[in-house]
Write a structure and sequence with these properties.
seven-stranded parallel sheet; six-stranded parallel sheet
Length: 394
């Protein structure tokens, strides 16, 4: 009965991820969560649709990963969907899954349906801006909706049917990786210790504003001729046009000596300590985890007043916020830091302290595990109540 249910530890949480690649905030956040849960209280199983870097990295951490295709109830997929729901249902029961956590907003209806039928609570994580959430089955059926910023949560809080079950839990950053390593990548890149470096980390897509940054660097170079912009990140598969445009702009502005494209790197923490200033002139950002990473490495940030970023850079003492697509404002903000080492150090120290307080792994795990406890004790209470009703009926 309900009594034994609450005594059984650890509880098993199934995380459902709708893709298997490992770059991008939702995948790294999932790795952070499952790698740091309190094993006395929770054990995790992760479901991914196919083999790839995400399942590989999770297995490296000793996690249990289940690879199975998950289908949408479209006309073509309806037959597979109908077959799938009872299969998932039986599997959830046989594995003793206590809670299902949909890690990506593209929740798979068959899993949600199976969880609901099995009486297992479903938590939906929202990491991107959603449109018309009340029309989404996963959001309607979720016990709780967890948003990664108040900016992302806004549309849910405006919806009467979803408002009460919506909450914000900020993504955590594994701050230890940014604070403990003192090495930088200057030696590897052959960059002199005194050469000023501006860093960009992100997917090379139009919304990240990289062309604006390249234009700003042209202006910065008139005052600081040896400035170097390091671009970390790649274009998404099948979308090479914007990166090509960025590279053409570098040539057109004669900045070949000032801009280097380094591709996708897994050692971002060391690069955050290599940069003198971090720049992210993005046009939209659901959260902005990379901004916290820079702050955690004591690197001053220049970024935009969009999406979740003002929830991170909450005061002008923590970083400089400008409007998107404004190369002139961006170059001014970068020069303010590049020409003043004392200002860089002060902003770096304040940013680091703020990031540690608000976005440390402990803070996020405490909130998430408290949510799990709360949801599961709600299930136990409901079970006890229905058992009492049955006794009364008997």
């Amino acid at each position: 009965g309900a009594g034994t249910m609450s005594a059984r530890h650890p509880r098993t949480v199934l995380y459902v991820n709708s893709w298997s690649s490992a770059h991008g905030g939702s995948s790294t956040s999932l790795i952070d969560v499952v790698g740091n849960l309190d094993p006395e209280r929770y054990r995790s199983v992760v479901m991914c649709p196919n083999e790839g870097e995400l399942p590989e990295r999770l297995r490296e951490l000793g996690m249990r990963v289940l690879v199975r295709g998950i289908h949408r109830p479209t006309r073509e997929e309806l037959h597979r969907f109908v077959v799938e729901v009872p299969l998932h249902w039986r599997w959830l029961r046989s594995e003793g899954i206590d809670l299902v956590h949909g890690n990506t907003s593209a929740s798979r209806r068959s899993i949600v349906q199976a969880a609901v039928s099995a009486g297992i609570p479903y938590i939906q994580h929202v990491r991107n801006v959603a449109r018309n959430p009340a029309a989404n089955y996963g959001y309607r059926m979720a016990t709780k909706i967890v948003c990664n910023s108040d900016a992302t949560a806004e549309v849910f809080r405006a919806e009467p049917s979803l408002c009460a079950k919506t909450m914000t839990i900020y993504n955590a950053v594994d701050l230890a990786r940014y604070e403990t390593e003192s090495d930088t990548r200057r030696a590897e890149l052959g960059v002199d210790a005194s050469r000023p470096i501006v860093g960009f980390v992100g997917q090379i897509v139009p919304r990240k504003g990289l062309t604006t940054l390249i234009e700003a660097i042209a202006t910065v170079a008139t005052r600081v001729p040896d400035v170097l912009l390091l671009v970390l990140g790649t274009a998404p598969p099948g979308e090479p046009e914007y990166e090509a445009e960025c590279r053409r702009l570098v040539s057109a502005l004669g900045l070949e000596q000032q801009v280097r494209f380094l591709g996708y790197r897994r050692d971002v923490p060391a690069f955050m300590r290599t940069f003198d200033v971090f720049a992210l002139p993005t046009r939209s950002e659901p959260f902005g985890k990379v901004v916290i990473e820079a702050m955690a490495a004591s690197c001053p940030v220049v970024t935009t007043r969009v999406g979740g970023i003002p929830e991170i850079v909450t005061s002008p003492e923590l970083g400089t916020l400008i409007q998107p697509d404004d190369a002139a404002a961006l170059s001014t903000a970068l020069l303010d830091f590049l020409l003043d080492p004392g200002r860089r150090a002060a902003f770096g120290a304040r940013g680091r302290a703020s990031a540690r307080d608000r976005f440390g792994m402990e803070t996020m795990l405490h909130q998430l595990q408290a949510l799990y406890d709360d949801v599961l004790s709600g299930v136990a209470r409901a079970g006890a109540a229905s058992a009492l009703r049955e006794e009364g009926a008997a």
